[in-house]
Amino acid sequence: MAGVTMVQALNQAMREEMARDETVLLLGEDVGVDGGIFRVSDGLLDEFGEKRVVDTPLSEVAIVGSAIGLALYGFRPIAELQFSGFSYQAFHQVEGHVSRYRKRSQGRYTVPLVIRMPYGAGVRALEHHSESREAYYAHTPGLKVVIPRSPRKAWELLKASIRDPDPVVFMEPKGLYRRGREELPKDRRKVPALDGAEIVQEGEDITVVAYGAMLYRAMEAVKTLEREDVVNAEIIDLQMIAPLDSDTVNASVQKTGRAVVIHEAPRTLGVGAEIAARITEESFLSLEAPVKRITGYDVQVPMFAREQLYLPSEERILQGMRDTLAF
Amino acid sequence: MAGVTMVQALNQAMREEMARDETVLLLGEDVGVDGGIFRVSDGLLDEFGEKRVVDTPLSEVAIVGSAIGLALYGFRPIAELQFSGFSYQAFHQVEGHVSRYRKRSQGRYTVPLVIRMPYGAGVRALEHHSESREAYYAHTPGLKVVIPRSPRKAWELLKASIRDPDPVVFMEPKGLYRRGREELPKDRRKVPALDGAEIVQEGEDITVVAYGAMLYRAMEAVKTLEREDVVNAEIIDLQMIAPLDSDTVNASVQKTGRAVVIHEAPRTLGVGAEIAARITEESFLSLEAPVKRITGYDVQVPMFAREQLYLPSEERILQGMRDTLAF
Amino acid sequence: MPIKTVDLDSEITHLSILDEKGRVDEELEPDIPEEDLLDLFKTMLLVREFDERKEKLQRQGRIGTFAPVRGQEAAQLGSIYALRKTDWFVPSFRETAATIWRGMRLEDDLVYTAGYEEGIRFTKESRDLPIAVPVASQIPHGVGIAWGIQLKGADDVVLTFFGDGATSEGDFHEALNFAQVFRLPVVFLCQNNRWAISVPLHKQTHSKTLAQKGIAYGMRSLQVDGNDILAVYVATREAIERARKGKGPTFIEALTYRLSFHTTADDPTKYRPADEVKEWEKRDPLPRFQEYLIKRGHLDRDMVKNWTTAAVIEVDHAVERFERRLDGMGRDPDAIFEHAYAKNPPYVERQRREVEDWVRARREEGGGE
Amino acid sequence: MPIKTVDLDSEITHLSILDEKGRVDEELEPDIPEEDLLDLFKTMLLVREFDERKEKLQRQGRIGTFAPVRGQEAAQLGSIYALRKTDWFVPSFRETAATIWRGMRLEDDLVYTAGYEEGIRFTKESRDLPIAVPVASQIPHGVGIAWGIQLKGADDVVLTFFGDGATSEGDFHEALNFAQVFRLPVVFLCQNNRWAISVPLHKQTHSKTLAQKGIAYGMRSLQVDGNDILAVYVATREAIERARKGKGPTFIEALTYRLSFHTTADDPTKYRPADEVKEWEKRDPLPRFQEYLIKRGHLDRDMVKNWTTAAVIEVDHAVERFERRLDGMGRDPDAIFEHAYAKNPPYVERQRREVEDWVRARREEGGGE
Ligand SMILES: Cc1ncc(C[n+]2csc(CCOP(=O)(O)OP(=O)(O)O)c2C)c(N)n1
Ligand SMILES: Cc1ncc(C[n+]2csc(CCOP(=O)(O)OP(=O)(O)O)c2C)c(N)n1
Ligand SMILES: [Mg+2]
Ligand SMILES: [Mg+2]
C-alpha cells in the first residue's frame, strides 16, 4: 500500500524536526530502545542517539516536569506519555506550570514543549487505555490541544506543534494509528502554523463537527445520509480543540442552520458542550434546530468488549443528523 | 450577629457527623492542631482525638489515596485539600480510582469519601489560590460535585455528602467562608439527601443559573434589574454541578424562555457550556434568546489585584441579563 | 566534631534459603506443612500452564492483552501464602499467581481479559482489591486499608504488590512515607523483575538496591531472593507478624525476573539480550522448588507429570466454561450503566434508554454485530 | 551466606563550622573575601528589616500575604553565595534572601506581593525562576534545566530550594531519582526549618534525617547546620563544584528553623511551644555570623548600627517607589490578557475588548473603583 500510517507519519515528523532543529528532543517511557510501545519513535534512537531520544524512569511528573525545565532552558522537548490515562499523574505540572510560565514570568520564560499522548478507544486494552478526556486540557487556559485525523495531518500538525511558541498537548487517536495510509507532501519544509479548524467537505444543509477517530464515522454516516436523504453536509474537523476555532463552526452554521457534533468523550462538559454553547451564542438566529451532541455516555468508559456500544456509531450519528434535519 | 458563618457551619456539620457515625474521620494538612488553615476544623481534634482528626504529611496523593483505602475498608473519610489549586497533585487518584472503584469492582467496593477543598477567588492570596476549575471534576463520570452557597446550605450539603454512598468533591467557595451568617435548622438530625438544584427565587421573565459565590452577585444584579426594568427573574442555585440537575433548569427555561448562567471559571468548557448545551437541546423551542454565559475569561486567573476585573461583576451580570431580555 | 557521621540505624540485609540448585539452608528453612508445600507447587504448575494458554487465546483474538507471571511465581506465592484469608491483598496488574492462590477462578480471569467487567467477581467477604493498572497508584490504597485496620483495632494486615518501575512513581514515595509515619500494618512487596517494559533497572534508578529506598522513610527494609519461595515466605511472614503486632510496615524487595514478555503487546527481543534471559532461566523458581520437594521426599517425577497434566485439564475446563459464559453474556448494553453511581442521575438513565433502544432496533432488524 | 548485609556505600555526614557562639573551626573555615562576608552580612540585615516591614504593610492591607525568612538567612545566603550569576536559581516561595542576593529589587517584590504580576521582572539574561507556590513542584523544573545544561555541554549548575515538607511530595521523589539517573548538574538544597505550616518534622516523616532520603536514589547526601552560613557555603560550594565537573547531583539538608510565622495568614502560637522558639532564637544565624565577623576584625558594633539604619532607609525608599508605582499602574485590564498565549485566539481578544469596554464605560461614568 502506498503512503504511510499515522504512526509512521508521526515518526517522520519527529525525525524531520529533530534533524532540522537540534533543540528538539524526545523523552518518555520506552521511547528509546523499544521505539515506543506503539512504535511511534521507532529508529529515532539509532538516528539521533541517546542524548536526544531518552528512555526515562517510570515517572510522569518528572517527564513533564523536566520537560518544562528543558523548555525553560531553550530546548523544544517532546514528552511522550504512554497513554492519556496516565497523563493525570502529571496533571498538576500541566495545570500549574506548563500553562502558566509565560504568564507568571511576564513573557520571560516560555515552555514550547509538546506533550504527546495516545488517547481514545480502539486497542482492546485494559482499563485506563480507552478514555477520551481531552476536555480537561481544553478547559485549561494557556494550553493548545491538537488532535490529528490522518497520517498527513498528524505529520503536519505535529511539526507545527513542535514549532509553536506555546505548549501543546498533542493527543493521538490511537484507533487511527494504523488505520489507512496517506502520502506525505512532497515539499517537507513548508509547514503551516497551527491554525484552527478545517472544512473537509463543503455543504449546505447541516454542519457536522468532529475530530480524531470519530471524524471517519461521521464521514461514513454523512455518505449514507447524502445518498439516502439527498442532502449536503458540511464537515468540519476541529483539529485543535484549544483554542477552539468556533468562528469557522459558526460561519458554517450560519449557512446551514443546523449542526451536530460528535466525540468519544463523555457528553457532559465534553467539547460538544462548548461547541453547542458557542453556536447558540453566536448563531442563534440562524439555528433551525438544536445543536445535537452524539457522544460517549456520562459513565465510566466500559472495558473493550462493550466499547462499541459506548462510542458514537455510524448509526447513532446518522440518526442524530436525521433528527436534526427533521426538527 | 446571630447565626454562624460558613466556616462554622462546615465545622458544625463535621462535628455532628463525627458524633453520629464513628466511621467518619477527617484527614489533611494542618486540619488537626491548627484547626485547618481556614479554621474549618477548629476544635475537632480536641473533641474527637487524633485518631479521627489527623494531621498528615504534605502529600495530596497519599491523602486522597489513603482516604480511598479507608473508604474501601468501611470508613467515611473526609479528606481536606488545602486549596483546589493543589488538588491536581492527586488528580490521577480521583480520575483513576475515586470515580471508578464502584464500577471496577462491580459494586463490591465503593468509596463514599468526601474530598473537601476551598476554591474560587476572594482571599487576596498568591497564585494557585483563586482558581475555579470545578469543571475538571464535573466532567469525570462517577463523581458528585457539590458547591454550597450559604452557611445553612454548607451545613446541610456537607452532611448529605458525608452520608452519600458515592464519592463527593465538595468545593467550598472560599470568598463566602466568612461572608454573612445564617441560623442552622433547629432539628439537626433531618438531612435531605443530595438532590440537584434549588430554585431560590421564582420568576417569569428570565432564568438565572449560578452557584457558589457568584450566586450573590447574580442576586444583587437581579435586584437592580427587577427594580429598574420591572421584570421577574427565576434564580436557580445549582448546588451540585455533577450530576447536573438540568431538568430543573430546563423546566424553568421552558417557562421564561431566556437564561443566563454565571460562574467564576473560565468560559470555555466551564459549567455554563453544559448548561447552555442542555438548554438548547431540551428547550430549543421555548428559547427566545441565546443562553448567555457571564463567566471568568479564557486566560490564567490574574493575581488578586486584578481579580475583580476577571470575575463576573454585578454590572456584567446585569448587562448580560438585559442583553438577553432585549434580544 | 564539625564533620561527623550520622548513625542511621539502618542496614539492608539480603535473605536466601533455597539456592539455585534447590539446596536448602536448614537453619533458616521454614516449617511449612507438606500439604501446603505441595499446594504451592501445584499452583505454580497451574499458573505456568494458564499463562501459556492465555498467550494462545490472545494470539487467536479470543482475549485481550495480559501480563504473564512466568519467573515470578515464587515471589508471588511465597508472599501470598504468608497472608491469612482475612488479611488484605492489594495487587498490581501482574499478580495472577497470588490472585489464583486467593481463590480467583480461572474462567473469571479470562472473562475479564476478554474485556468484560464481570470477570471481576468479589463477594462481600473478599479482601482482595481488583487489579490496578496505573503503576504504583494502588500503593496508597493499601496504606489506607491498613490505616482502617489500625483505627478499628483489628489484627489484620495488608500485603501490597508492585514492581521495580513503580518505585520511581510519586505514589510509591508518598504512600510509604505515610505508612511509616502512622506505623501502619502493611507490607510492601516489590517484585523487582529487573524490567519495566523495556527499561532496565539501571535506567530506572541509580540506587544499588531497591530495598534501600525504605531508608528514606526510616522503614525496616530488606532484600530477598525472589525466586526462592522459602526466603520470600520467611521474609513476608516475619514482616506480616511484625505488622500484626503493631510494629509497623516493612518494605521487601524480592529479586526476581520477568522471563516472558511484558504483555502480549510487547516484544522483549527488541530490547533485552537473550543471554540475560538464559542466565535467569537457570534461576527459574519452579525447578528449584521442585528439586527441594523431591529432595525432601514430598514429590517424585511421576507426581510432577500427573499434576502437569492435571493443570492442563483444569485450564481446558476453565476455557470451556469461559467460552460458554461469553456466549450467554451477549453484548448487553445495560452493563455499561451499572455500578456507575449508587443511583444513576436522570440524564444517565436517558442515555441508558437510548442505547437500549438502539440495541433493540438492531435486533428487530435482525442484525447481528 | 543466606543472610548478609548489603554494602550500600552510603553514609550521611553532618557538617558544622561556626558554632552557636560564633566560634569557628579553623581547619574547615572557608576563605571568603572580606568584602563578600560583609555584603552577606548587610544582606542579612536588610532581609530582616524587609520582612518586618512587609509584615506591617500586610497588616495595613497594602500588600497580600507572604512567607517570611527570619531564621533561615544563613541557609539561603550561604548557599546562594556559592552560585555564579550565570548558574540557575530555582526557588520555592520563601527564598526572599536568596532572591535579593540574586538582584531582585525590593520594590518589585512589594509589587508582586500586592497582587500584581508585574512584580516579576526578569531580563533575558535572568537565570532565576519565579517563585513556585505548589510545594515541591519546582524541583523537576530545576532537574530539567540541569538536563539542558548537560545536553548543551555548558558548565552551569542549578541550585534548587525547597522545605522539609516538600520531601513528602511525589514531585521531590521523582525529580531526585531522575537527577541521579542522568547524573545532572543540580544541587538540591532542603531548608529543613522543622515545620510545614503547623506540621512538625516528626509528623512529616519518620526518617532520622532528611538527608538520608537521598540514599533512595544512590545520591550523595549530607546534612549541615543551616544556621551556620560558613557550613552552608562550604557544603554547597563543594556540591556545586562536583556538579560542574559532571559528578552529578547532591542533596543537602540544611538544619534551620522558621523563627516567624508560616505566612501572615498563620498564627504559630496555636501549634508550637514558645520554648522551642526560644531555643532556636539562641541559634539565630544573624548574631552568630555577626560575632564571627567581629572576632575576625571585619566588623564592629558601630558598623552594625549604621548598617541597620541603612537597611531601614533602603526599605523606606523601596516602599516609596512601590507606592508610586502602584499609583501609576491603575487597574489596567489589559494585563489580564497579556502573556496568556504567544498570540491570543480571537475569542480571547473579544473577551479582552469586553473588559476594556467595561472599564471605559465605568471611567466615562466617572466611577472609580
Ligand atoms: C502511571 C503509569 N504509567 C505508565 C504505565 C504503562 N505501563 C504499564 S506497566 C509499565 C511498566 C511497569 O514496570 P514495573 O513496575 O517494574 O512492573 P512490571 O511490569 O515489571 O511487573 C508501564 C510503564 C502505567 N500502567 N501506569
Ligand atoms: C502541593 C501543595 N500543597 C499544599 C500547599 C499549601 N502549603 C503552602 S506552604 C506549605 C508548607 C510547606 O512546608 P515546607 O515545605 O516545610 O516549607 P516551609 O513553608 O517550611 O518553608 C503548605 C502545606 C501548597 N502550597 N502546595
Ligand atoms: Mg518490573
Ligand atoms: Mg518547613
CATH superfamily of the largest domain in chain A: Thiamin diphosphate (ThDP)-binding fold, Pyr/PP domains
Name the assembly state. heterotetramer
Q: Please indicate the percent range of residues of chain C in DSSP E strands (runs of 2 or more).
A: 5-15%
- Annotation, overall tally of beta strands of chain C: 9
Largest interface: A-B, 51 and 51 residues
Number of domains of chain A: 2
User: Largest sheet of chain C, order of strands side by side?
Assistant: 2-8-9-5-4-3
CATH class call of the largest domain in chain C: Alpha Beta
Number of helices of chain A: 12
- Low-confidence parts of chain A lasting 5 or more residues at pLDDT below 50? none
Task: Tell me, briefly, the overall form of chain C.
Answer: globular
Descriptive account of the structure:
The complex is a heterotetramer, with 2 copies of chain A (327 residues) and 2 copies of chain C (369 residues). Chain A has helices spanning 6-20, 44-48, 60-73, 91-98, 101-104, 134-138, 151-163, 214-229, 246-256, 271-283, 307-310, 314-326, and strands at 24-28, 53-55, 76-80, 114-119, 144-146, 168-173, 198-201, 206-210, 233-237, 240-242, 259-266, 292-296. Chain A folds into 2 domains: 6-176, Thiamin diphosphate (ThDP)-binding fold, Pyr/PP domains (Rossmann fold), CATH 3.40.50; 198-326, Rossmann fold (3-Layer(aba) Sandwich). With 327 residues, chain A is an alpha/beta fold. In chain A, helix 3 (60-73) packs parallel to helix 4 and helix 8 (214-229) packs across helix 12 (314-326). Chain A is 37% helix and 18% strand. In chain C, the strands form 2 sheets. A 6-stranded parallel β-sheet of chain C has the order 2-8-9-5-4-3, with helices on both faces. In chain C, strands 6-7 form a two-stranded antiparallel ribbon. Chain C is globular, with a radius of gyration of 22 Å. At the C-D interface, strand 1, strand 2 and helix 6 of C face strand 1, strand 2 and helix 6 of D. One thiamine diphosphate sits between chains D (94, 133-135, 162-166, 193, 195-197, 258, 262) and B (29, 58, 60, 82, 86, 89).
